[in-house]
Amino acid sequence: MLAAKPHIVILGAGYGGIVTVKRIAKQLSTNDANITLISKHDYHYQTTWLHEPAAGTLHHDRTRMKIADLIPSHVQFIEDEVVEIHPKENKVSLKNNEQVTYDYLVTALGSVAETFGVEGVYEYAFNKWTLNGARELREHTEYMFAKYNNEQKEEYLTFVVAGAGFTGIEYIGELSERMPELCKEFDVPMNKVKMYVIEAAPTALPGFDPELVEYAMNLLENRGVEFKINMPISKVTEDGVILKDGTEIKAGTVIWATGVRGNPVIEKSGFENMRGRVKVTKDLRAPDYDNVFIIGDCSLIINEQTDRPYPPTAQIATQQAEVAARNLANLVKGRPLEEFQPDIKGTVASLGGKEAIGVIGDKKVFGFSANFMKKMIDNRSLWMIGGTGLVIKKGKNPF
Ligand code: FAD
Description:
The protein is of the alpha/beta class. Helix content is about 30%, strand content about 25%.
């Protein structure tokens, strides 16, 4: 009698999930395993592009693609929200469907905003770095301009970005680039607009080379952005933000970009975690569960050189997905597992328009060449999930 085929279930169709599905489907035939992907929507979106639709410089449809067009036909797809994983019972509870049973699980559910205990973030700040979050923020921004025309309240034209890390800087880069056009469209003088970036740490873009940080700050300041560095926000309110020194900034729009924690499903499911991230084994499994892989923003891996966790990035999520897929095949075929070793190729942050900064290998890049690299990185990530056809359809012009 033939042994039953194992059921491999992948949660989340972001970078980690889609790349795992594509790679595992190549390594295991339909005779080896049944594969199911579960994700909240019937589309994948490029999380690393979301600052653009959020600021309104790119239509959100350019950042998303139908999952059915990305995955092989023999992979079953369930569009649903994962509510809880039951790792002791090898089951996953979903919001709208019956529980799904697995033999092997890959969890790639991404992250949510980290508030660091600041009150009012979830209630009053835009904090969802998802396609729908980006759509809502863009609509709200335009609404604020339209409202100002009727009520002339200055706070409607005040934008506060909390966090001068990667996401906050990329977002303000796009918004400040679009601002002259927005002002023109809504008949508002540019000098009425206030854009703040507020950072608790002693520098913007912590971890970046100081020369690159200076380049980015000068460029953004020239577009009208005001930085408040070394200045924690103590509260977000209906009217704006209150800083640690007691100053209140009234703002119609507060955008939260101070970092992330792993998807709340991780904590709810009882995995040992630090801020929703599981410190995975070298072969990317949850410490207590040999059949559960955790990758991407839900996982935590330590950089042995600095003894600190690697920041969660798409670069790491996709590299983990490749290893997780090979290790799933290894488990199914009874072979030894391989260890994950990140290969950080560089980091490039866009600053809106044709501007960017970054490090490729050990070389610093600015302006046009950095922007060129950023667009090539974005195109490469399309190629990884959908091949040349997807690059032609949704790719970015690097020139
Ligand atoms: P994601 O790609 O976020 O995917 C998670 C998936 O899970 C999504 O499809 C989501 O819909 C789904 N999901 C979530 N919850 C549920 C649920 N309960 N049930 C079912 N499905 C669910 N990284 C870089 O390397 N380079 C960059 O330049 C860069 N720029 C960034 C810019 C911005 C604006 C942001 C927000 C992030 C950026 N990052 C960048 C970080 C990067 O996007 C993340 O580290 C990466 O997306 C993590 O991949 P993931 O697969 O873990 O999660």
